[in-house]
Amino acid sequence: MESQTNISEFILMGLSSDQNTQIFCFIFFLFCYLAILVGNLLILISVCCSSLYNQPMYYFLSHLSSVDICYTSCVTPKLIGDLLVQRKTISYRNCMLQIFAMHFFGIIEIFILAVMAFDRCVAICKPLHYMIIMNRTRCNLFIVAAWAGGAAHSFSQFFLITRLPFCGPSEIDHYYCDIFPLLKIACIDTYITGVLVVANSGMVALVTFVLLFGSYVIILFTLRYHSAEGRRKALSTCGSHITVVILFFGPSIFAYLRPPTTYPEDKIFALFYTIIAPMFNPVIYTLRNAEMKKALRKVWCQKIFSEDKRNCFVPLMLNNFTRQHKLI
């Protein structure tokens, strides 16, 4: 890689040059990262240590939580550390590694969200055959396919970007190494490379989003024949997943399904799919999910506090928050 560039490190422009803004961002993003780790680890451990792990929906949710931790850890610790220093740099090798990891875990998350939508579609449209269709062998194949798809996508993006020569300037107008800002500072014409990036990343996000949208159209069509209580329960389950899809896919499609150029708004939209969505995923999936709250109570209360429900602060906090949300 070093033979293709005269630059050994890049300078990241970051989110802001104002000192007070950087201090505020440091505190805010540190809180966000801790919330991501705690929330997703709570879901991951609670699902794996309870009977929910045998249910396909929660099996996929546990994998989504683990991917969220890996995905945001590719960017957020570096962002938090850079907010404390004046000169924000990243080596060429670490920059390429960050690009590979971001696209690897990002595509895995996209595919897992698609599989979760298919799971809800089967559960609602084919309830009697649900456990036969979504058996553990097929669920494992879906997860392996998601990881294989992530590897294929990230290697192709990695190959495109490592072939570009960089000879200066070395300033990247972003808070992490992203492909479009790097194309902007390359020493050669990057139009073809930009088109290939859009065709790869953008079309993957768009096609997956269309499939997700189609699955929920089928679900809504099927729910016409269900009772009012059945529709309420099904929509409550699917509502969490739809919220996560919107938070993740909206900014992602804006970022990659467009001409290969950079905009000032890119940093704000990137925050949604790198930090905000992984932070809200645990809250969204547990706020109105009775089974998830029951698993939290069983794992974190009965084992730790010897079935003393008065000390079950996690479910109690969720229940109080749910009641306040309903009152609002």
How would you describe this structure to a colleague?
- This protein is an all-alpha fold and 328 residues long.
- Helices cover 72% and strands 3% of the residues.
- The chain contains 12 helices and 3 strands; from the N terminus they run E-H-H-H-E-H-H-H-E-H-H-H-H-H-H.
- It has helices at residues 19-48, 56-73, 76-82, 92-125, 130-133, 136-162, 179-184, 191-222, 228-256, 266-287, 290-302, 313-327; strands at residues 9-12, 89-91, 171-172.
- The protein has a 3-stranded mixed beta sheet with strand order 2-1-3.
- The chain starts with 8 loop residues before the first strand and ends with a helix.
Unreliable stretches, pLDDT < 50, 5 or more residues?
306-311, 324-328
Helices and strands, in N-to-C order? EHHHEHHHEHHHHHH
Global outline: globular
Q: How much helix is in the residues?
A: over 70%
Major beta sheet, specifics? 3 strands, mixed
Summed up:
The chain has helices at residues 19-48, 56-73, 76-82, 92-125, 130-133, 136-162, 179-184, 191-222, 228-256, 266-287, 290-302, 313-327, and strands spanning 9-12, 89-91, 171-172. With 328 residues, the chain is mainly α.
Task: Outline the fold blueprint.
Layout lengths: L8 E4 L6 H30 L7 H18 L2 H7 L6 E3 H34 L4 H4 L2 H27 L8 E2 L6 H6 L6 H32 L5 H29 L9 H22 L2 H13 L10 H15 L1
Helix pairs in contact: 1-2, 1-3, 1-10, 1-11, 2-4, 2-10, 4-6, 4-8, 4-9, 6-8, 8-9, 9-10, 11-12
Tag the structure with descriptive keywords:
328 residues; single chain; globular; 12 helices
